[in-house]
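[Q] Does anyone have a clean structure-token version of this?
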Amino acid sequence: MAVFRIPAPELQIDFSFALGQMRTLYMQDALGSTVEKTDLALLNTQLSEYVPEHCLKALAARGLRGELVFPVPCLFEQNPRLLGYYRLLLGFSQKAFFIARNLVFRVLKQWKSSGV
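[A] Here you go.
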């Protein structure tokens, strides 16, 4: 008969605690608490300014708000850690995001100016 050793639970407990912290600092929970502290009129104005209307309408048709997908300056002013949320949402590793940040921001500027 094989004897199985059960590992000590500290590693799993620590990992669970770290995930909980990430959720409140960087994930959608962090976005929600930041939106609660942000002036909604300013948020809507910036979404209208930076995000094409058809993109906002496509999200609204699915019952979603624009800030779930599109970052705007007022959110970063309230919580700079949201950069991690949007980086993860876009699927960039931290290294790739910061190496390519000039390209990403150039693309966003071009996208805004073209009215796509």
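[Q] Thanks! Anything notable?
[A] The helical segments are 10-25, 28-37, 40-50, 53-60, 73-78, 82-90, 94-99, 101-114.
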